[in-house]
From TrEMBL:
Domain of life: Bacteria
Record-linked Gene3D superfamilies: NAD(P)-binding Rossmann-like Domain
GO MF: oxidoreductase activity
Coiled-coil ranges from the UniProt annotation: none
Pfam families for the chain: adh_short
Key word Oxidoreductase present: yes
Cross-referenced CDD domains: SDR_c
Keywords per UniProt: Oxidoreductase
Protein name: Dehydrogenase
Family in the record: Belongs to the short-chain dehydrogenases/reductases (SDR) family.
Amino acid sequence: MATLITGASAGLGAEYARAFAARGHDLVLVARRQEALETLATDLRAAHGVTVTVLARDLATAAAGAELVAATESAGITVDVLVNNAGFGTHGDLVDADPQRLADEIQLNCATLVDLTVRYLSGMRSRGRGTIINIASTAGFQPVPHMAVYGATKAFVLSFSEALWAEEKPHGIRVLAVCPGATDTEFFDIAGESAALGRKRTARQVVDRTLRELDSGKPSFVDGLANAVTAHLLTRLVPRRLLITVTGRLMGGTR
């Protein structure tokens, strides 16, 4: 049984790697940083005796999904668990953004995620088993001014994953969308600390909750009680216009 994890060099991805290795899963670790992946792989091999394959890839390209699947197939690796964790966020007004950076964000957060999912899903279907974990966000529950593209990509991931959950449940394949709030990872090194709302949860807390929820049969979950209240309750009770305005102010907009 092999688990493939994207964005595995740090943060949530590395924590998922540790958790699945502890369960005896062989791993395929994917991220851009070869050295960080190799260090993690060495530690996991020593600690758990599992096979760890490192594939350094930039997944923010249109051909990345096909190339990654070709690499695992040529290595004879059967992927039973897919963790689509790779992603990043941009913070600021859209008018000030670099168009190529936004295109990369959409490619990585949405297009590559779908591409990898559909390419590995066919094998899972034929075997009658498999697990797909997609990392969404509490940002996917409402528009997020000053992180408009990021919020929209995570809304896409959430909707896509929940629909796929319904399609694949009769075929023995588990699909779960994980919706963390602010988490103590490198994400904010890119998005900026002003993109964090509320107290940060740890990567370990998110991963532990994921493993529990996999057996619940749910299509998605929000990590953390305060985050769940905001995502499921306030977004329904607060008028949409007010919700968008308040979210924009919290995200540090100046216009």
